[in-house]
Write a structure and sequence with these properties.
The chain has 12 helices and 13 strands. The termini are far apart. The strands form 3 sheets. A 6-stranded mixed sheet has the order 4-5-13-10-11-12. It has a 4-stranded parallel sheet with strand order 8-7-6-9, sandwiched between helices. It has a 3-stranded antiparallel sheet with strand order 2-1-3. The longest helix has 15 residues. By secondary structure, the protein is an alpha/beta fold. 34% of the residues lie in helices and 17% in strands. The chain is globular, with a radius of gyration of 19 Å. The structure holds zinc ion. The site of zinc ion has 7 residues, from loops.
């Protein structure tokens, strides 16, 4: 059965049977809710996110996979508290993006996509360039001139065409939008199938915790695709009667560029303008998220919130994680700083089950980490 898109802007319903990335009215599209997942439907022998294939809105078997998903969930001691870390940094391209990319590109291939392009500060670009290469798709990636070198090298090595755009991150997005007539804009921030992929994070945490739901999940958040994926995944599990309660979701942001924190502090339901500053957490330095209202709603519904991490707390958190054997990029390290903050102020209790999602590998940002740690 063909999946359906719904536009919250104009109310249109469209079949997901061709490559489109937004509604004709200009608004983003969402995938209609699916029937979800029951534990008997898991393909237990499959060590990747494709163990949940029956719950994904794809027509057939995946044409391209690099073994994404089914990442380790390890327990460590954090200031005397037992915490679980979800190592999304161990994906094929070193970041959580591969969940969304794999499902989005398999859908796009099913509906006959041609050449694609994407804009990214790094991780999404390297993920999409890598999967495009694996699938034999022609690919162009627009990156800011300030993008971390490791990620740019990763994009170039996959054979994608690199388009370096001077100026702000917004200028990069505008260049990608302008190219939408030449090739398909496979945008991880716009395309609903990206969130269809990130929802498998919810399934995995539930299964790895012995078919149980944690109390708290902390996620470094730029556009919010993991927050929306978690909400969609837990929603589906609840509708199928597999779970009866929901985890509190905490979006972790760098205080220097924190769109959700600004809106949250103002008690707003949608975007509130602010002045961004530079941050070492480049992967979450998002000035204007596409789905601001949806992410804020998901956080409120979960009874979680937003944590803004001061710049000075990123390096110590990165070092503390490193000393636990968890080598992550500065963006992911913000989650460690947020964890300390929530434990300190009593929002999170030591006896609760808390999961910290580590979104990107340290090898992606060695130059920046060297600077932060004075190596
Ligand atoms: Zn519309």
């Amino acid at each position: 059965m063909t999946a359906l898109y719904h536009c919250s802007g104009c109310g249109a319903n469209l079949p997901a049977d061709r490559p489109i990335w937004r509604c004709a009215c200009g608004s983003h599209l969402d995938l209609a809710p699916r029937r979800g997942l029951a534990r008997g439907e898991i393909a237990g022998g499959e060590p990747s996110l494709w163990r949940y294939r029956s719950a994904l809105a794809l027509e057939g078997s995946p044409c391209v996979s690099l073994g994404e998903g089914w990442t380790p969930l390890v327990e460590r001691d954090w200031v005397g508290v037992k915490v679980r870390f979800k190592l999304e940094s161990q994906m094929p391209t070193g970041s959580f993006k591969d969940r969304g990319t794999a499902v989005m590109l398999n859908h796009l291939i099913e509906v006959g996509v041609g050449p694609i392009h994407e804009d990214s500060s790094g991780n999404a670009g390297s993920s999409i360039a890598t999967y495009a290469a694996a699938a034999g798709l022609t690919c162009r990636i627009f990156v800011p001139a300030t993008a971390p070198r490791g990620k740019v090298v990763q994009i170039a090595a996959s054979g994608a065409e690199l388009c370096v755009i001077p100026g702000t991150r917004q200028a990069v997005t505008e260049a990608a939008l302008a190219a939408a007539g030449e090739s398909f804009y496979a945008s991880h921030n716009w395309h609903p199938f990206f969130i269809e992929g990130t929802k498998t994070l919810a399934y995995e945490l539930w299964e790895q915790l012995g078919f149980a739901v944690p109390d708290n999940i902390l996620v470094p958040t730029g556009y919010g695709s993991n927050i929306l994926g978690l909400e969609r995944g837990f929603d589906e599990l609840e509708r199928r009667g597999e779970i009866t309660r929901r985890p509190r979701l905490y979006a972790v942001q760098a205080q220097n560029c924190a769109a959700f924190a600004v809106a949250w502090a103002a008690g707003a339901e949608s975007y509130v303008p602010f002045t961004p500053h530079a941050t070492a957490a480049d992967g979450i330095a998002t000035v204007k998220p596409v789905r601001t209202a949806e992410v804020l709603r998901a956080l409120r519904r979960s009874r979680g919130g937003v944590v803004a991490v001061p710049e000075a707390e990123i390096a110590p958190a990165l070092k503390a994680l490193g000393c636990l054997g968890l080598f992550v990029e500065p963006t992911a390290a913000t989650a460690g700083a947020a964890l300390s903050q929530l434990l300190r102020d009593g929002t999170i209790q030591a006896n609760e089950t808390t999961v910290v999602v580590l979104t990107g590998h340290g090898l992606k940002a060695t130059d920046k980490i060297a600077e932060l740690l004075g190596v």
